[in-house]
Amino acid sequence: MIGVFDSGFGGLTVLKDVVKRLPHYDYLYLGDSARVPYGERPQETVYEYTLQAMEFLFRKGCVLVIIACNTISSRALRKIQQEFLPGRYPDRRVLGVIRPSAEELMARGCAKVGILATNGVVNSKIYTEELEEAEPPIEIFYQACPLLVPLIEAGRHDENGCDTLVSQYLDELFRQDGGIDTLLLSCTHYPLLYESFRRHTPSNVALLSQGPIVADKLENYLTRHTEVEERLSRKGGRVFFSTGPLEPFNRLAGAFYGHAVHALPAVLDSAESVGKKRG
Fold it and tell me: From the candidates 62, 145, 162, 187, which is the catalytic residue?
């Protein structure tokens, strides 16, 4: 299967677009909703949580995993790829959402990009790192939106308060530079507020969500890596797991995924157990 992992619901927006583009594969979604959000957690904690999730997904038969979260992609992905996989799962692949997004920004020839994200992603300056060799150079402007994810996770994305916050965050961003030509919603929760972001963004400024970008890049990746693609099952299956209470997860997940979701309970190994396996 293709696994999709996020700390909560946000990754379902990515899964939605990936399934739309590549419907014939089998997918397994894992939301660590018991410990959401990850954005304010220390980097080592995010890494340990991610290791636990990878062990769960690999045991369930995932050959390829998409980390559908900017915070996890910025704080844990590289270490997962370089240190964890070679020793434990050399035949598995883990991809993120940041590199595909950076590639899209370069392909579009953007000059000034506004990154709307959690505090963790903003503090990491990961997009500056990913785009440092862009030619011509791309200027990056960050805007943290720390109050949006908790409201979205609580199912309050339709409230006026969210719209007001979006307006305030965009005002702060454009005060940094009024010439920003592209905005990237660098949190997979934010597509639920796309219309609000669009309403408060000048019409001449492009507004990008990561789901379609990741879907396009995944299709390209599988075309280039036939050794991975040939191992994927093709029954059109969709399985959902949550580490938290199932009723609220199922109730809210539909808004992100666009269809009813009936999740199963997920129990992840402790950090100590994963550590012993790594040893």
Answer: 187
Burial class (CB in 10 A: 0-12, 13-18, 19+), 8: buried
Q: Has 62 been annotated as catalytic?
A: no
Q: Report which secondary-structure segment, H or E, holds 57.
A: helix 43-59
- pTM of the full structure: 0.92
Query: Alpha helices, DSSP H only, in 65-193?
Result: 70-75, 77-79, 85-88, 98-107, 119-124, 126-130, 148-153, 160-176
Residue 31 burial by Cβ neighbours in a 10 Å radius (0-12, 13-18, 19+): buried
Catalytic residue among 69, 110, 145, 162: 69
Tens digit of each residue's pLDDT (9 = 90 or more) over 97-151:
999 999 999 999 999 999 999 988 999 999 999 999 999 999 999 999 999 988 9
Helix (H, G, I), strand (E, B) or coil at 206: strand
Closest to 227 (Cα-Cα) out of 90, 103, 101:
90
Amino acid letter for position 238: R
Q: Distance between CA 86 and CA 39 in Å, rounded?
A: 27
Cis peptide leading into residue 265 (ω within 30°): no
| Residue 187 annotated in active site | yes
